[in-house]
Amino acid sequence: MTFYNPPHPHTLHTAMSLPRLAPGIVPALMAWMLYGLITFVIQSSSGISYLDWFKTAANAWRTGVLSLAVGSVVLLGWLAITRWDHLWRDPRRLPVTGVMKAAMGFWWAAIALRLAGVDWQAVPLDLLLAVVVSGVLVGFAEETLFRGFVLRALREGGRAESSAALWTAVCFGLFHLPNVLMGTGAVGVIQVFLAALSGSVLYVFRRHTGRLWPAMVAHGAWDISAFLAGGYAQPWLTATTLPMLGLSVLVGIVVLASIVRGDRHVVMLP
Q: What is the mean pLDDT of residues 177-181?
C-alpha cells in the first residue's frame, strides 16, 4: 500500500513564491522588447503621426489606448511567467531627502498649472475620456516596465542603488527614441533626454513609499495634463512652456545627481 505524504505548508508556500525566471537584466530586456515591439507595431500601423495622436478621440483610441491596453496585457502575462518578488513593493524603504520631496512637489505643481491652463470648454468629452484612459494605461504599463521590471533587475546581485536608479532612468529615456520614427523628428531626441530626467523623479515616487503605485499615479497624471495642454492650452499657459521646461530639466538633473552621489554604497537587495 502506498501512502501520500503531503508537503509541509511552509515548503509548499516557499515553492509557490519562488520566481519561475530568476530576476535579471535579460528577462527585463525581453519584457522591454515585447512591450516596445507590440506597441510600436500597433501605433505605426495606424498611419497617424505621433503629433496627431490626441487631436481627435478616434486617433487617441486607435494609437494610445489600443497599444497601451495590449501592452499592459503583455506585461501582466510576462509577470505571471517570471513571478518576480519585490516588483510592486520594496523590501525596505530608503530615506527620502529634501531635494527629492521638493521634486515631487514640483511635479504636482506643474500638473496643477497645466490643468488650470487648459481651455476646458474646447475639449470634446469623447477626447477627454480617451486621454484619461490613455494616461491611466501609460502610467500602469510604463511604470510596471521600468520602475518595476527594469529597476528590479538592476537591483539584483548587490548592485548599488545609485547605479540601479541611474540606468533605469537612462533606459526610460531610450524607450522614447522610436517616437522619432513616428513623426516627432529631431524633437524626439530631446524627448529622450527629458524622459530620462523625468524618470529619476518617478523613481523618487516609488522610493518615497516603497511601492510602485504612486509612480503610476504620478506618471499618468503628468501625461494626461501634457496631452490636454498640448492641444487646448490657454495663451498664458503657452507662455509658461519654456520656463517650466527649463525648471523640469533642472529638477531632474539635481535629483539624479543627488541619487548618484548619495546612494553609491546603498544596496536594496544584498
A: 84
